[in-house]
Amino acid sequence: MKLNTKLLAVVAAILVLLLLLARFGLPLLRPYVFHGMVMQTSEQNNDFTLTAHTGERVSLADFRGKYVILYFGYTFCPDVCPTTMAQLAQAMKLLDAPKAERVQVLFVSVDPERDTPERLAQYVPAFDPTFIGLTGTPDEIAAAATPMGIYYAKNEVGGASGYLVDHTASVMVLDEEGRVRLIWPYGTTAAEMAEDLDHLLR
User: Fold this and answer.
1) Cα–Cα distance between 3 and 168 in angstroms, integer?
2) pTM, to two decimals
3) Cα separations (Å) of 186 from 36, 84, 149, 153?
4) 170 close to 81: Cβ distance less than 8 angstroms
5) Which CATH class is domain 37-200?
6) Which residues pair with 38 in a beta bridge?
7) How far apart are CA 3 and CA 10, in angstroms?
8) pLDDT tens digit string along 145-177?
9) Cα(81)–Cα(198) distance, integer angstroms
10) Cβ-Cβ contacts under 8 Å for 117 (sequence gap 6 or more)
11) What is the phi/psi pair of residue 118, to 5°?
């Protein structure tokens, strides 16, 4: 009798679980779906060395052991760059502190003519004091951007600015070994970024 009672209890629990899964779907059984483009590569990204907004020379390899969020933009960008940087700053705030400490955001300038370390020091930490701005010579910027498929080009315009820079607006996420794992398109929200990072950092 006790065995039958236990069996009935187990069957009832299974039925309740099946009803809940039928009602709400199978989120626990589904693979996680990222908000960006997942990259399946076993190769490390090419290393590069640039000048940080602190004046120090910094290499991508210096951040092995951390997830690196890599964004190529420029400080005179009127809309895309500040919007993306604000989303990245908010995403970092949405992560719990131990996970946030395992992530480094790098902002690489595609406008080295104007983006001196001093200019980057005013711009980048304003979004988040942990963010690092990087610049260098035109050849150094090209060596960092080109292997990653980053497009950028001057676009002469009227007015005081003189020119804008057309550039790839996506954001790359590199894993602890320096491999590109994820690419977020422009418009990915802070909540979506944080959700993806939370999953990667498990």
Assistant:
1) 66
2) 0.83
3) 10, 7, 15, 18
4) no
5) alpha beta
6) 182
7) 11
8) 999 999 999 998 866 668 999 999 999 999 999
9) 23
10) 51, 52, 53, 54, 55, 133, 135
11) -65, -40
